[in-house]
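Team,

Forwarding the record for the chain on the shared tracking sheet. I've put the sequence and predicted structure together so nobody has to dig through attachments.
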Amino acid sequence: MHADEPNILCAGHISLDIIPNLDGIMDGFQSFQPGNIISVDGVRFFTGGAVLNTGLALHRLNERVRLFIPVGTDIYGGILKQLVHDSLNENERPKRPPSEAVLVESNGETPFTLVLSPKDVDRLFLTCAGTNSQFDIKDVLNHLSGIELFHFGYPPLLKRISEDGGNSLASVLAILQAKGIVTSVDMCMPDFQSSSGHVDWRSFMQRVLPYVDVFMPSFQEISLMLYPEIQSATHSAGSVHPVSAQDLHELSQTLLSLGAKMVGIKLGDQGLYVRTGEFKPELEQGSRPPWWHGLHPDNWNHRELYIPCYRVPVAGTTGAGDSTIAGFLTGMLHQRTLEQCMVSAVAVGAFSVERIDATSGIGSWEQVQKRIHDGWPRSEPNPFFGHWKVTEDGIYRGPSDC
């Protein structure tokens, strides 16, 4: 591998995010009533979706990334390509390592998402699938030169991936692992009004997770996908299923039993929970990258940990979970301990929410580490973890932590 060649490939869902400035909306979505005229203070365009959120976050953390981007030939496609170009060619010092975009043009519409994010409430998305509907996972096999880590995001929003029940994704991930490439997968909330809402997601993950090294969904989305009764209750009550330590333990146990080596469950502003199973990189056969073999089994095997978020003023939460994944993966690439990877994950997520978009607020890896070491305060932990043993670095150890 050439020293400047990207070693991370990001593929999956992409989007042009269109975000109106709703700072003047003081009563959340109550203003959004039929017949109302709502004034906004301008609109901005940002890169979005799993590929660009996680990929550009990794780039800003000084990693070498290849972004696989199916894009349309429409006006939105031109805007998205310019935004990606600008993001990869920022004139900053110190200069970041080179990353690159693989732009695959088609006659379809460029995917876009209208993000409605009033202050102090969770956001709402209006999305157009566009070229995401045409995405074929096998196309990534032509872009593996130098790749050591593959991150794939948002299968529920990729029609071909979701509707075949995970077969194509599982087959490609199996090929990648056979080549020694470490695999990472992120999920998203299915649209329960479309075909993705009728997928048997438990069967999907039973096929896919045996070929996933790092699986990092959010609690809400993975709960609704695995447990339809929660989905029904949540939708009928109009509420979010609460997070408890017992729920996380049972949910992570299910995901480990389905084949994932490591499960990180993102908890929004409540932090990050991580559980690992039989995780012994040094015993694996094949040509896994040196940084993977450098993850010490005594630190990564059979762990159960929780960390609260860092305290920051929140400008926008779009892409915060994707940035959290980028922080975690960068920690792994630097052969940090599991605890250190979790600290870096929530730190990068905190950098992300300080700006309205997903990635522009993220500093270099060195800047992130300096802020951590300078005594950055964390939020109060979820009270369900109050009885867990807390370490000096603010990590909570669960009952299954060995």
